[in-house]
Write a structure and sequence with these properties.
84% of the residues lie in helices and 0% in strands. With 156 residues, the protein is mostly helical.
């Protein structure tokens, strides 16, 4: 899971840095927005890596569920931080979609936890396939949302 969080984070960080450069130095609100967006993502990345570092190949199902609960908590914190950001008017819709990507990721994690609550061999495999697909979707949607923010800021 660490690679997943890092991939999403790095992709959006690169996009945000490009947006910051495109904004130039004359728009303080846009620059502050990009800094706040990057800070929220950095906190998410740090928390996700810390949580994932505690996961082991030999963990029990209950330990895995606790790890996933902490991971969902990190996503919740990120959503809250993203919602507190003062968003420039030209990217309100794009920012909302960016936040929605994290909300969907949280919901996917919650569904995975529910699916493994009373695990069967087939049920766990099915849940693992679904969470892997959900992670790919999260990464793709996060990159797209970041690109949309970049494009909206660049065109303003």
């Amino acid at each position: 899971m660490a690679r997943l969080a890092r991939t999403a984070f790095l992709a959006t960080l690169v996009i945000a840095a490009a947006a910051l450069a495109a904004c130039g130095g004359d728009n303080a609100q846009q620059n502050r927005y990009i800094r706040d967006l990057e800070a929220a993502q950095l906190t998410y990345k740090t928390n996700a890596e810390r949580i994932e570092a505690g996961a082991t190949q030999t963990s029990t199902p209950s330990e895995d569920r606790r790890t996933l609960d902490r991971f969902a908590g990190a996503i919740d914190q990120t959503v809250a931080a993203l919602r507190r950001i003062d968003v420039p008017p030209e990217v309100v819709a794009e920012h909302r979609r960016f936040v929605a990507v994290f909300v969907t990721w949280h919901d996917d994690i919650a569904r995975f936890v529910a699916a493994i609550e009373r695990p069967t061999r087939d049920g766990v495999r099915r849940a693992q396939r679904r969470i892997a697909a959900a992670n790919l979707t999260f990464n793709a949607n996060l990159r797209k949302a970041g690109t949309d923010i970049d494009a909206a800021l660049a065109s303003s």
